[in-house]
Amino acid sequence: MSFHELLTRPVRAPDRVIRFGPHPDQVIDVHLPPRETAPAVVLLHGGFWLSQYDRSHTRPMATALADLGHRVYVPEYRRLGQEGGGYPGTFDDVATAIDLVAAERRGRGGVTVVGHSAGGHLALWSALRHRLPASCPWRGEPAVEAVVALAALSDLGAAFTSGLGGGAAARLVHGRAELTGLLDPVRLLPLAPTTRVALVHGTRDRLVPVEMSRRFAARAAVALTEIEDAGHFALIDPLSAAWPAVIRALTPSGGGRKRSPACTLLAARTPFSRA
């Protein structure tokens, strides 16, 4: 399926909008469930951090997750091509949004961060902020209970050197490769032992190669579900055959596990038929 096909899926307008800064894109859409029966989700959209891709393409997924009982928070953030986009503004916005949601949810259960593509990179980075230097303003103890990374750009250094997304990773850091030490999930490992992480990736992904998730899963000793014949956008389409695997990854027993020193790689291959 294509990106444009995804935009035809049924959506609802958000029930609430939280503003966290003066820029028009410093906002969080909130989608409320009929009854809250599942963990709250922060949903970070992808698009190679580029301004032409905004949160609107994740609204079908946000609507579907809310229907399943999740309260869904969808942050927007400044992106490449906008004033303040890229380093450091993109990371300022994501850190601020997740901290705001975590504060709102304190005492009401943990927060699961779901990210797709570049949003997967930001989701994993959010769970690794405790590994940043003490002098870094983004450093913080893990406020994220679980991460589900869908077709994630989990290796920023590899994306930088290979030119994925037309060189978007290099633009993200203004060509300064040394900044990837602060921003690259694979370089910030290990994860906190209490953080559950699950990766999901389609084997036919032409935008972010599945090998990237395989390498991250091996390095981090976390679960990876490979969906055979699935492309990049099937993972965020509630009408795709890949969708049940994504929902399983969201549940603690279904697609991931908390890490421990003895944790071994869990790999699953889920058949997928093209629609």
From TrEMBL:
SUPFAM superfamilies: alpha/beta-Hydrolases. Keywords: Hydrolase. Coiled coil: none annotated. One of its GO terms (molecular function) is hydrolase activity. Residues 41-238 form the AB hydrolase-1 domain. This is Putative lipase/esterase. It comes from Nonomuraea gerenzanensis.
